[in-house]
Prior knowledge:
Elements: E1 2-6, H1 13-22, E2 26-31, H2 34-43, E3 46-49, H3 55-63, E4 67-70, H4 80-98, E5 104-110, H5 136-147, E6 151-157, E7 159-161, H6 169-179, E8 182-185, E9 191-196, H7 197-210, E10 216-218, E11 222-226, H8 227-238, E12 242-245, H9 250-254, H10 258-261, H11 270-276, H12 285-291
Parallel strand pairs: 1-2, 1-4, 2-3, 4-5, 5-6, 6-10, 7-9, 8-12
Antiparallel strand pairs: 9-11
Helix pairs in contact: 1-7, 3-4, 4-5, 6-8
Amino acid sequence: MxxxxxxxxxxxxxxxxxxxxxxxxEVLGLTRSVRGVAALxxxxxxxxxxxxxxxxxxxxxxxxxxxxxxxxFDHDFSRYAANCEKDRRAxxxxxxxxxxxxxxxxITSVTGIGSSAPGEPAAEGHLDLAHPxxxxxxxxxxxxxxxxxxxxxxxxxxxxHDTVRQGLISPFIDxxxxxxxxxxxxxxxxxxxxxxxxDVARLYRLALEGGHRNARYHAVAEExxxxxxxxxxxxxGLGVPVVSIPEHEAGDHFGYxxxxxxxxxxxxxxxxxxxxxxxxxxxxLLSDLxxxxxxxxxxx
Length: 300
C-alpha cells in the first residue's frame, strides 16, 4: 500500500514510517525541509514537499496515495485553539482529495474527546462534538467527511512518551526548570493516560491494515498516572522541591499550561485491544521519566 504520512519526520510519524516500511508498505512523507527530505530518503521513503499550512500540497499527496495517516500538528500549546482549527482545515483538504470510497484517512485526536462523565475513562464509542477541548475540531472535521462518504479512522492519543518527549508533560518540565519547583494542583489526584511512542506507532499500522471503516481507536497503554506521581519523578530528576499549588494560583504558576494542569484524562483502550489485537509492550510513563537525562538546577 502507498501511504501518505503527514508529520512523517516527527516524533510519532517517523516511527510510523519505519514500521510501515518494515511491513512492506510504500511511504510518501510530507516534509517542508531539505533535512526532512534527506531523512525520509535515508529511511527508504519518498519525500513530498509541503506543510500543513499548504493545503494544495496536502491534496496532492493524498490524491497520489492509497491511504493517508495524518499525524502532523503544531504543538505550540500557547496557540492551542488556533492550531486545532488549522488541523480542521488540513483534515478537510486531505478528505477532499481522497473522496468517497475505501481509501482510508487516519486522523489524529486526543483521548479526552471520548470522556463521557467525570471520573469515567474515555471510551472509543463516545463522541461529544460539543466537547470543550479545542481538539474536538479534528473530530468535527472527520465526522463531516464521514457524512460525505470518506473512510475516516480516528486514532486518539494520550500522553505519548519516550525518554525525550512526553506530550503535555514536556512543557511542565520546562515550567519546573523555570520556577525551581515541580508542582501539581491541589492533591494531584487527576490523571493522564499514556503510551510509549513505539506502541502508538504500531497501533497506527494495525489501524491501517485491519481497522474498521469510520472507527475510533485509543492508543492507551496506561489508563491513568496521577499528576502528583509525575511531579514527584520530575522533581527528583531536576533536583527541585515538589509542591502543591492551590487551584486559584494555577494561572500564575503554569501560565498557558494552566488549563491542562487540572485535567483528569483517564482513558480505556479495551475495545481497541480487542478489535486490533494491540498489546502495548513499551516502558511505562514513569519509567521513561526516570530514565531521562536531567540537568539538575544548580544552587545560586
